[in-house]
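Lab notes, practical 5.
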Amino acid sequence: MSQLRLRRLEPDSAAHRRFFVRLQWRFYRDFPLWVPPLRVEAEKLLNPKRNPFFAHARMQLFVAERDGEAVGRIAAILNELHNQIHGDQVGFFGFFESVPDEAVARMLLHAAAEWIAQYGRTRLRGPVNPSMNDECGLLVEGFEYPPAILMPYNPPYYAELLEAVGLCKAKDLLAYELTSQALTDRLRRGQELVRQRYGIWVRAMDFRNRQLFRQDVEHIKEIYNRAWQPNWGFVRLTDAEMDALVKSLRQIADPELAIFAYRGDAPIGFALALPDINQVLWYNRSGRLLPALWYLLTRRRSIDAMRILILGILPEHQHLGADAVLYYELARRGLQRGIRRAEAGWVLEDNWAMRNPLEKLLNARPYKRYRIYEAPVEELR
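Output from the prediction step:
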């Protein structure tokens, strides 16, 4: 009779990180919409020496094996900054993969719960990969659509596994679909009134001017951390984390889709939309870097979608309607670049300050739903 065995892997080991990352391909052979990650980027995400997240966090990797073959994986994560900010005792899990077997899922989640309990954590929450500022949530609706850039994808049965083990919904995250119909007359008129009434204007980032670029990065840090601070589960990015994020995104970003809203001489909001390079990376089934670069070089012009990754307004200016100006500019500029659809998200299910403009001004519809689960550690041990 076959038996399950749990194996610990260490993030400090390059060989262990490589093995953990490459396991993912085993679980998606029958899921053609899955977009393989770049192996080098996935391994860097787990590397305590290269990911600044681990300056305030730690992680343990686990693999479940049956008869010598890997049948599941998970990461147990401690995010010290999260608990400092929110005043709770939550540990996290992420990078969850499993065959459709409740025993495998139970073993993995039990291991994660046991590990975080050693550090006094009382609740397990996830999936986050490895934080809410990275890919997070379990896809529970919208399996018929491919994942947009920097969004997760998983088999439909994962939700059943987590719920069978005892995890319950903590919060849902929504992704919205926008089409050319987003440029409604109401949006055009509304954003024009906002510009005239409050003197709001828009400027794109300048990636070539090093001094101006550094100043812009500092503005993004302030806007990002202050605009999202009240949100459930949000943890501000440290300077090192923001610098690493900007360096990574700069390689694929279009400067004209990285825009600031100004009131007078001061930036009050920022929005960033990325070309959905997943449309191209889908062809790179190996996840290797050189083929990915080739596909990006030869197929980039075929990209006709984008993801609105960031859109935030400083709290003291959120009543002005500057978000409408940013949405309008992203839609207009995207259409000029041949973009025919966009994904906006994720958005917390109860964040109506974000949901109302999307639904009422831009005719957007929520077409994917992601779920964050949690459970008391004692129920999983």
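Observations recorded by the TA: The first strand starts at residue 4 and ends at 9. DSSP finds 13 helices and 15 strands in the chain.
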